[in-house]
Amino acid sequence: MRPFELTAPATVEAALASPGTFLAGGTTLVDLMKLNVLTPQRVLDINELPLRGIDTSDGLRIGALERMSDIAGHPGVYPVISRALLLSASQQLRNMASIGGNLMQRTRCTYFRDVAMPCNRRDPGSGCPAISGANRMHAVLGTSESCVATHASDVAVALVALGAKIRLADAAGSRIVELADFYRLPGDSPDVENDLRPGELITEVLVPRLDWASHSTYVKVRDRQSYEFALCSAAVALDIQDSRIVDARVAVGGVATVPWRLTAVEAALRGAPVTTEALEAAASVAAEGARPLSANGYKVTLLKRTVLRALLELTEGSN
């Protein structure tokens, strides 16, 4: 780790007026600084800023510095969000990690984290060795010739499924953006991962009111049950009335370069009866557009099965 200056601004205004890299829980930033993947000269500890609070009175509002463990255990938080948070990390990490930091975490691609290797995300134009190298963990959706790294966040998948937005603030004011639009596909510039502008900070997460999202779940498939990143995950919420699916929200993680909304699966579910055959038919289109690599073709089948597993979990006893 290289030397850096650490300051702790006392107000949001002071933080936004100060150049530097924001530090909340530090569960991603500190790791990358130790590896010299990130080498900020100035770090701003923002933990004392008034960016906390969970409000469930009309939808869900979460302050960006709320810890993952506190959100997961808060009454009124949709099950799909709570479950995604609980499956994200160990209890110790959940006690430290903030929701805003979780949404900003970087990919776990081993090439990105190894400064001795080329990586277009870390060093634009240097190449993407994962395309022809060790790519078992990499993406099959949303990839490009420049990058095939997966997005790491679990809760971002749940939030994208529910149509969440985030508030971004800078010294000039604030703006609200759809979380799904915030993340950028790699294209030919994978180093630009999101729509965060210089000097901006996530201040809160806003989830619209969706009463039937109380009937939701998050399924995560990984190499080991203890703390591990997803090979594939599925966030699903269903509105079921009279043994028929009226509406659905489905997004997946671990298989794409950004949290991936499955609109084709949602369309197949709307109006469908709650039968195994109908759920299988909807899950069968989950991998449309997939581009598997040499070692991750299994994710095409795994994706379909993970979505189906989540659907079956939610509809058990409804048909």
UniProtKB/TrEMBL annotation:
Q: Which UniProt keywords apply?
A: Oxidoreductase
InterPro entries with a match to the protein in the record: CO_DH_flav_C (IPR005107), CO_DH_flav_C_dom_sf (IPR036683), Diverse_Substr_Oxidored (IPR051312), FAD-bd_PCMH (IPR016166), FAD-bd_PCMH-like_sf (IPR036318), FAD-bd_PCMH_sub1 (IPR016167), FAD-bd_PCMH_sub2 (IPR016169), Mopterin_DH_FAD-bd (IPR002346)
Q: Could you read off the lineage of the organism from its UniProt record?
A: Bacteria, Bacillati, Actinomycetota, Actinomycetes, Pseudonocardiales
UniProt protein name:
Xanthine dehydrogenase family protein subunit M
* Membrane-spanning residues: none
Where does the record place the FAD-binding PCMH-type domain?
Answer: 1-212
Gene3D superfamilies assigned to the protein according to its UniProt record, in alphabetical order: 3.30.465.10, CO dehydrogenase flavoprotein, C-terminal domain (3.30.390.50), Uridine Diphospho-n-acetylenolpyruvylglucosamine Reductase, domain 2 (3.30.43.10)
